[in-house]
Design a protein that fits this description.
CATH topology of the largest domain: FAD/NAD(P)-binding domain
Oligomer: single chain
CATH class of the largest domain: Alpha Beta
Helix content: 25-40%
CATH superfamily of the largest domain: FAD/NAD(P)-binding domain
Number of domains: 2
Number of strands: 18
Shape: globular
């Protein structure tokens, strides 16, 4: 079924009795060509692009819970391409281009809103750093505008420009950045993959990875064994645990990242805004809630909930940047499990086990990478060669120390990224 304005009108007049399920409730078959472990945004996009770009449709996506109930539904929905280092820059540029055509591609309203993203700076040194970043973005083919103080004031008049400790001196505007509806992205990819013959197997936790003579042969699940020629581990914060089933020890730590949303308010924040002197970012959802977050909780954990000291830290940053937010009531908070690498950049690569592939280490960048991540992993699995825009996302860079991509310049330590 194609979605359209005409269908909405037609179904409304017919009592909405003609809608079909967005995807099939598939039961696992004994064997597939390819099994993807993880039914989040990255796993679903990989399955879709395997079918769409490479004609590989004998694919199962195995998810331990329900489709889209993991990190893809636990984030602050930001999409952007404002990276500076070679390797990251071209990858996220490619991802943003895919975002721009995603809704037409999937025939699904993912609520992609390129409202613009503003990174504020508060010192001369930060101004120089953002000027350099903006030049790198332009050289990559993306957009960037360096704003002075009055330029920011015209866009964001509600900020506290006079604060003595962190005066706002300007900002870097990324006009094509913005947000998308996280749940809708998962549903759109799931529907499109299913339409091309991919089986989406829910409530099937992977309990083991079968290996024979150094080659993957399938997976064990709570719904039975599944044989496969190729297997991909695409499980975000659970990457270390699942990889351990194949005897692999990954250079990844799992940390909790909290996010918060207020009660619904009238439109007040038109852009995505990032505070330069504290890790804080905010936007407003289509339902009116202010969606914001900050740093990870800085200790390793698999619990999808955060702690109160970090919640307090985020609220302090919010009040410093825009005191008006103090009048808004926080409606809810949640935690996503971040898979953090030592250099803050991801991994899309083969593993030492033949036929076993890995997609992990997205740190804070997982949601905005969903389209390009699936595109590149599908390319690697189908052709045996890394896609050019993901060629630097090698696993062995942590073994050799060559090719590390420390985007933030904070060193090789997981919880600093």
């Amino acid at each position: 079924m194609r979605y359209s304005g005409w269908q909405v009108l037609r179904q409304g007049l017919a009592g909405n009795r003609g809608w079909r399920p967005a995807w099939r409730e598939a039961a696992p078959k004994p064997a597939y060509d390819t099994v993807i472990i993880g039914g989040g945004g990255h796993g679903l996009s990989t399955a879709y692009y395997l079918a769409r770009n490479h004609g590989i449709t004998d694919v199962a996506v195995v998810e331990k819970g329900g489709i889209g109930l993991g990190n893809v539904g636990r984030n602050t929905t930001i999409i952007r391409a404002n990276y500076i280092l070679p390797g990251n820059s071209e990858f996220y540029s490619h991802s943003l281009k895919l975002w721009e055509g995603l809704e037409r591609e999937l025939n699904y309203n993912a609520m992609v809103s390129q409202r613009g993203l503003v990174n504020l700076f508060h010192s001369d040194g930060q101004r120089d750093a953002f000027a350099r970043r903006g030049n790198a973005m332009i050289n990559q083919g993306d957009d960037a505008v360096l704003l002075d103080r009055e330029g920011v004031r015209r866009l964001l008049p509600y900020l506290d420009f006079e604060q003595g400790r962190f005066p706002i001196l300007g900002g870097l505007l990324h006009p094509r950045g913005g947000t998308a509806r996280h749940d809708a992205v998962a549903w759109g990819y799931a529907r499109a993959a299913d339409a091309r013959g991919v089986d989406l197997i829910q409530n099937a936790e992977v309990t083991g990875i079968d290996i024979s003579a150094g080659r993957v042969t399938g997976v064990q699940t709570t719904r039975g064994a599944i044989r496969a020629r190729r297997v991909a581990i695409v499980v975000a914060g659970r990457s270390s645990q699942v990889a351990a089933m194949a005897g692999l020890r990954l250079p990844v730590e799992s940390h909790i990242l909290q996010a918060f949303v207020t009660e619904g308010l009238k439109p007040v924040i038109d852009h995505v805004v990032s505070f330069g002197m504290g890790h804080f970012y905010i936007s407003q959802s289509d339902k009116g809630g202010l969606v914001f977050g900050g740093d990870i909780d800085f200790y390793a954990s698999y619990a999808a909930r955060g702690n109160l000291p970090m919640a307090e830290h985020v609220m302090e940053a919010a009040m410093t940047l825009m005191p008006m937010i103090g009048r808004a009531k926080v409606l809810r908070s949640w935690g996503g499990i971040m898979d953090m690498t030592p250099d803050g950049s991801p991994v899309i690569d083969r593993t030492p086990v033949e036929g076993l592939y890995l997609n992990c280490g997205w740190n804070y960048g997982g949601f905005k990478a969903v389209p390009a991540s699936g595109w590149c992993l599908a390319h690697l699995m189908a052709t045996g060669q890394p896609h050019p825009v993901a060629a630097r996302y090698r696993l062995d860079r942590f073994l050799t120390g060559r090719g590390l991509m420390d985007e933030e310049g904070t060193g090789s330590q997981h919880n600093l990224h």
